Amino acid sequence: MKQTYTRKLILIAFLLIRFAILYGQDSNRFTKQVQNLYKKEYHFNPGKKLVVFTGSSSIRKWIDIQDYFPTVNVINNGFGGSEFSDLTHFYDELILKHAPEILFIYEGDNDIGRGKSVHKVKRQAINLVKRIKHDLPNTKVIFISPKPSLARKNIKNKYIRFNKKLQRYCQKTDNIQFADVWTVMMDENGNVFDDIFIADGLHMNKKGYDLWATILEQYLK
After folding, report:
1. Neighbour-count burial of 194, counting CB atoms closer than 10 A to its CB (0-12 exposed, 13-18 middle, 19+ buried)
2. Are 151 and 187 in contact (CB under 8 A)?
3. pLDDT by residue (tens digit) across 17-57?
4. Over the stretch 154-208, which tens digit does the pLDDT of each residue have?
5. Strands 102-106 and 176-179
6. 166 Cβ contact partners less than 8 Å away, ≥ 6 residues apart
7. Residue 26 backbone dihedrals phi, psi, to 5 degrees
8. How much is the average pLDDT of 127-138?
9. Measured between alpha carbons, how far is 93 from 77 in angstroms, rounded to an integer?
10. What values do phi and psi take at 121, rounded to 5?
11. CB-CB neighbours of 159 under 10 Å
12. At what angle do helices 156-171 and 118-135 cross, to 10 degrees?
């Protein structure tokens, strides 16, 4: 009897963990990080466009992002480990507050990496767009494609499927664009470059961000 009860507890714990992985964890775990971003003060050139970059750690770790795009005012509102659901949760603080002329979004990397379905992640992206279009109809939105990486190469094909679906959606939606950083990070044989990451094989070094910049700068012209 005791063994049966223990097995039930183990099963319940497993299902709870699985649910957290598939449907996202509590977004409030990012509250302190987001509060720090919200309180940050900027002294920008009023003659330049305001550009917000937001999303997960690939944005957060781009600490010298302003240096890459000197012709615009850049706000880095990246918060590490986030998913689409987290960005939606903190939409007011990270996006609406600034009402940027151009908005770059990098999400989906962690969503796919943690087991969410391609359909679910795309749906969350679309719901976020609807909210932005309602509140900020003049903001140009650019989705940065989830990148390839050494750490997550085992689910490469799932990322490819998601990127294709997201790109098709962007192509048929006004003022929404898709920035393909996937292709520029791959060699001629379709393998991700292994010298553009830090030791964890997931986050990029300067070489990686240099590649991103060559793609993203096109959307600022």
Report:
1. exposed
2. no
3. 444 444 446 889 999 999 999 999 999 999 999 999 999 99
4. 999 999 999 999 999 999 999 999 999 999 999 999 999 999 999 999 999 999 9
5. unpaired
6. 108, 122, 125, 143, 145, 178
7. -65, 120
8. 98
9. 9
10. -65, -40
11. 22
12. 30
Task: Give the length of the chain.
Answer: 221
Contacts of residue 59, Cβ cutoff 8 Å, sequence gap at least 6? 53, 65, 76, 77, 78, 104, 106
Read off the tokens for 145.
Answer: 């494609």
Say yes or no to pLDDT of 147 above 50.
Answer: yes
**Residue 221 confidence (pLDDT):** 85
